[in-house]
């Protein structure tokens, strides 16, 4: 299972600092949606230039204009770009077309999708490289939140999947046991007093 670090920060300088500390311990470096909205596509280029050996993940969460939005992110240096699973099939097909042109991949983020397992099968058939079983930051803050259903949805989907939803050092083993291909951790790393140590601790739990 790969480890993905989601950087939900707002400036390129902050992202470069976080990425430098975490990079030795992670496989995929994600530019979070707020970072791309705040700093622009140049942040993708800065991270790829600093970490050419890492998979750079641009969390665009595209809802429309799939081909155009994915194309500009791949041009900026992204290796993987997200499209929302609630988007129409034509948006996902457009984004996949751009990924094919660049030799890169589309990840479909299933945030807000009611039947994640069923939609996962559909979007992988449309050409997505994998899906993200995702409970967002707002959903995580709701009373009674648990990411257990993300794991069962991933397992039952039968397609390659990542899991994102407040993963910590105490829960990452259950993510691996679910059969996930990628564990996504954001706040567990970027909010830690020692970013490198937090990333290393997560990595150490992966068998
Ligand atoms: O995409 C996101 C929010 O929409 C986050 O980057 C993702 O949820 C991972 O962060 P965390 O581990 O803090 O949940």
Automatic annotation (TrEMBL):
GO terms for biological process: 'de novo' pyrimidine nucleobase biosynthetic process; L-ascorbic acid catabolic process. It is an enzyme of class 4 (lyase). Pathway: One-carbon metabolism; formaldehyde assimilation via RuMP pathway; D-fructose 6-phosphate from D-ribulose 5-phosphate and formaldehyde: step 1/2. Residues 2-202 form the Orotidine 5'-phosphate decarboxylase domain. It catalyses: D-ribulose 5-phosphate + formaldehyde = D-arabino-hex-3-ulose 6-phosphate. Its EC number is 4.1.2.43. It comes from the Bacteria. Gene3D superfamilies: Aldolase class I. InterPro entries: 3-hexulose-6-phosphate_synth, Aldolase_TIM, HPS/KGPDC, OMPdeCOase_dom, RibuloseP-bd_barrel. Keywords: Carbohydrate metabolism, Lyase. Belongs to the HPS/KGPDC family. HPS subfamily. NCBIfam families: RuMP_HxlA. This is 3-hexulose-6-phosphate synthase. It comes from Okibacterium fritillariae.
